[in-house]
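Question: I have long wanted to understand how a fold can be written as tokens. Here is the record:
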Amino acid sequence: MAMKKRISLVLVLALCLAAFAGCGQKDPGKTPDVTTAGTTEIDEGQTEKFKIGIMTDTVTQGEEAYRTAEKMVEKYGEDMIVHRTFPDKASSEQETTISTILSLAADPEVKVIVAAYAMEGTTAAFQKVRETRPDILLLGGAPTEDPGVLGPACDLLVSTDFIGMGAGVAETAEKMGATTLVHYSFPRHMANPIYLARHDKMKETCEELGIEFVDGTAPDPMAEAGVTATQQFILEDVPRKVDQYGKDTAFFSTNIGMHEALIKSIYETGALFPHPDTPSPFYAYPGALGIEVPDDKTDDAEWMCDQISKKLAENNMTGRMGVWMPPSLPLIIESLTEYGVRIIEGGYDPDEYLQVDILNTILEETTDGRYSCSLYTGEDIPNFYVYLSVTVLL
């Protein structure tokens, strides 16, 4: 939706989050009581029900996101939260995504749609929704589509701050006592401008902190030899790097296929691991460390962190691995849902849907100041904001 009114905001992006940028132009109010959430005042003494549609991965493609949406249903009720899923093969089944989102918009009580991940097809779907339902608040999270294209179709688009993560990984490595940081990737990923910018920021920060930065080129898991060759390389190369640079060597990887092998090798060699590329305790840690996750703990990040910490303590590695807490993707879903509730219940005009002071207030309340949100500066996308967190050492 074209923004008729651009709100200029200066948000402080602080890696240590000593202070939060939460001074807004409007009173964001308090968290709605669950018993009254889902209604907006339309006249004195009258209320109008509203619903929020949430789009996530299926449980097979992204259990963490799926379970988070289930938590939103539990929190606000099935009469308010409508949970739908992207197709498993989103890139080749975009028409399915479009039809699912349009089916949400066909319900006149749906006033908010949250898409996280915002997969292929989300832009086209949001554009079609906007043609007939300009009143719907469209929120995108963790986009897999180009933010420069998706952003104008949304009222608000948020993602992880990958570039800020580059500096954060280096600073966490220094906090852990690292003297060297190895960055594993391959040419295909380094052709991605966001990955490259994160790499360059990580390298720059290492140089400022006196940490030796090493580029480790691994086999591309999409090449003919596949993921197996990539994992075997990591299992063999991490011990070589530790022999060369010592145990106070930190490692980072850009690829999901590497992470179990990487964490396993780091654990066995006693090296350092600031956090995964997707900094969740559920991301690669259970498989790498042999942690069984009961069905009732699949979305319990605190429990998962405790299990990782116990494993690290067994190997005298306390404080030598890290995560973001809470994990970034569940937080994106939860915070955008709550943002939708506060915006709609506040009765804001559609031209004033971009109220990032409210989003930062939600982050401050729900993460104890670990997360902040700031405008992404890599592109001229006035409604694209990114989340950054302090790393928690396990």
